[in-house]
Amino acid sequence: MVPSWVSDPAPGPAAPPQNPPQDGQDGTPDDGQGSDTAPPAPAAPTPYPAIQPPAQGSNYGSARSDMTSGTKNGSSGSIRRGAGKYVAASGGGRAAARQLGSSRALAGGIAGLASAISRDGPAEALRRFNLESLAGAPAQDVFVALTDALCPPGGTIDEAIARDALLETIADLAAKGIGNFDELTQDDLQEIFIGVVSRSIEGRILNEVGTNSIKLSPDIAAVDRAQKMLHSFVVGCVRDRFQDSGESVSSLDSGQIDGFVSDLYAASFDLMQTMGEAE
After folding, report:
1. Which long-range contacts (CB under 8 A, 24 or more apart) does 139-142 make?
2. Which of 59, 156, 137, 148 is nearest to 109 (CA)?
3. How far apart are CA 103 and CA 258, in angstroms?
4. N or C: which end of the chain has fewer CB within 10 A?
5. pTM above 0.90, yes or no
6. How far apart are CA 235 and CA 18, in angstroms?
7. What is the reported pLDDT for 47?
8. How wide is the angle at C-alpha 240 spanned by C-alphas 75 and 258, nearest 5°?
9. Which residues contact 156 (CB under 8 A, 6 or more apart)?
10. How many CA atoms lie less than 13 Å away from 97 in the CB half-sphere?
């Protein structure tokens, strides 16, 4: 059960009617008396928000070229410049953030979880997901279960990026020796939140401009180096904007979370563009 503080994705526009049949054309005999009302159509499932295409006229070619150059020559400046050009080609920070609807919802879910733990404790916070029995389990096991609850497998590329962002963040923390879920501090939860935001931004950039410039390089060491440089740049921008906000994820109430998360994504993208253009 997804908690109330996780924003539902906005429904897309309804499909236009497909030439509904006239009287007697639907296989039902026409009694000649007509009908004032048509039988109700079955409710369509709520669609997930589509990933928005780049702004008209935008071109990721220049960003991809810088990413390729940075991968080949190990230049962190080229990687940062490519990331900045990606934001510019997307229409700026706010437009780039809008393309990460599922990631923003997931980050909001982590912020809401941190707030609930601070207020009610770990078991009660997990009760919202029917996972209260995992309160004392290893943190990585709990967050894998939370990933399935907050962002089920399958669906759009945006959903896959969000899911991978949380799983990669937890894997990083597990490698550093993260403990049981009920032992997590507010600092730990804040790092998970920052990690999800950062990893989802990275995932979007890699999906749009890195597939042909970084991931397809035959030099595995160069690929690893380029991805680490991109991660360092992105997480630095996210952390900087988060610290500038003066907020703590545990202190956000449910009415603040969506706006805070959206603003953080947009501000992080804007800083990436500014710093990329300075290279």
Report:
1. 139/170, 139/173, 139/174, 139/178, 139/179, 139/180, 139/181, 139/183, 139/184, 139/188, 140/170, 140/171, 140/173, 140/174, 140/178, 141/181, 142/181
2. 148
3. 12
4. N
5. no
6. 47
7. 39
8. 120
9. 48, 50, 51, 102
10. 24
How many helices and strands, by DSSP H and E, does the chain display? Answer: 10, 0
Residue with tokens 């080229």: 78
Place of tokens 């879910």: 109
90 neighbors 59 (Cβ within 8 angstroms): no
Q: Where are the domains of the chain?
A: 61-277
C-alpha neighbours within 13 Å on the C-beta side of residue 265 = 28
Q: How far apart are CA 53 and CA 67, in angstroms?
A: 20
Contact by Cβ (8 Å): 179, 204 = no
Which of 245, 246, 162 has the alpha carbon at shortest distance from 198? Answer: 162
CA distance 266 to 152: 25
Residues 6+ apart with CB under 8 A from 242: 194, 197, 264
Contact 79/68 with Cβ under 8 angstroms?
no
Residue 59 Cα to chain centre, angstroms: 23
Report the alpha-carbon distance of residue 75 to residue 65 in Å, rounded.
Answer: 13
The dihedral over CA atoms of 178, 179, 182, 185, expressed in degrees to the nearest 10, equals -40
Q: How far apart are CA 262 and CA 200, in angstroms?
A: 13
